[in-house]
Amino acid sequence: MTEVRVRFAPSPTGYLHVGGARTALFNWLYARHHGGTFILRIEDTDRTRSTEEAIEQILESMHWLGLDWDEFYRQTDRLEVHRRAAQELLKKGAAYEHEGAVWFRVPKSGVTVVEDLLLGRVEFQNPELKDLVILRSDGTPTYNFACVVDDSDMGVTHVIRGDDHLNNTPKQILIYRALGRELPKFAHLPMILGPDKTKLSKRHGAVSVLEYRRRGFLPEALINFFARLGWSHGDQEIFSREELIELFDLPGVGKSAAVFDEQKLLWINHEWLRRADLERLAKLLGEFIVQEGIATPEEVAGLGEGKLRRAAELLRERNKTLVAMAHAAAFLFPRELPWPEEAGELLAKKELAEPLEEIAAALEACEDFSPQGVEQAVRGALERLELPLKAVAQAVRVAITGRTVSPGLFDVISLAGMELTVARLRAAARRLGEKGEG
Length: 438
Prior knowledge:
Rossmann fold
């Protein structure tokens, strides 16, 4: 078998989105699985729509996802090569000039067959295909032409792309043949649909890869999720990058459309948050606390690595993104935390003021502020009051974290530290007492 050479060829007219990232991943995995070459080629010949900003965003997205390339090209660096190929077709009579542009002459009879590795045999009637511009009047090549010249010159063996390109394939095959060049193998990937089975769009969550980074998803979770959009290996859902390289091949790609399910993406991300190296996760948590405006870089640094790592360890259990973890970490900083609406009923319980004050006093006197030491102090106070923990647990949780759901209560108290915990419990006790008086 000749060496596998595949390419991802995005057009820099916008961000790298879900469909493009899935195509990039499948090509990358195919190359890595077969020990081949992965080429990144920026198709920037449409000068009116291509932007440098879009190119930068594509490169940044690829870097963040860890999709490294072996060779890199920009189509605009190859304009002379494209023009020479167009001249070759003009000389052969396979192309003609009209209104300053060069047009490819499509045969008026016969059938062009695509032998697709995923879809099987697909036939196109040549009379239904129209002549196409291959060189614009400004001398720049069009997509279908530049794509053929570049794939051929770069020795691409497999063209793996979305099935929205299937209608381009017969035209490209005809250009290959007119140039006397060898055809690659084609594999057209099934479409990605939204949960309502319509074409994937922004309302389904089809945003840029970098937007998923901003929303607190891990790159390994996105890679895992994108891999499962149209490819499967038994019932397995969670795959490491190494497993994907080992297992991925085209026979595992389905023929029917894949469905984009954000709930599944959140579940996969949660799984990867729970598997993540704690030091890395703590660093990311710190970055997201700053990104979300919850605390300053100085305040995050003031927590110390140990506390941030412990926070990451506790908060990843109940939160599905780094953004959610960051907001759940707000209680670590000296801010007033508004009580959530669902905790409103607690405000009516004036009888909780005294227990909160007692617990605050017990914690203020506590010399061992580990979760175990904290538990001993809280339970001691409750014994003196002859109250069960469940009578006050939710009020303590809301007072300290501003939330009705959190990691274990004693873990939270230990993590918040004595000063913050005592201040918040006393503020809550005053608030309840004032309600009682009113």
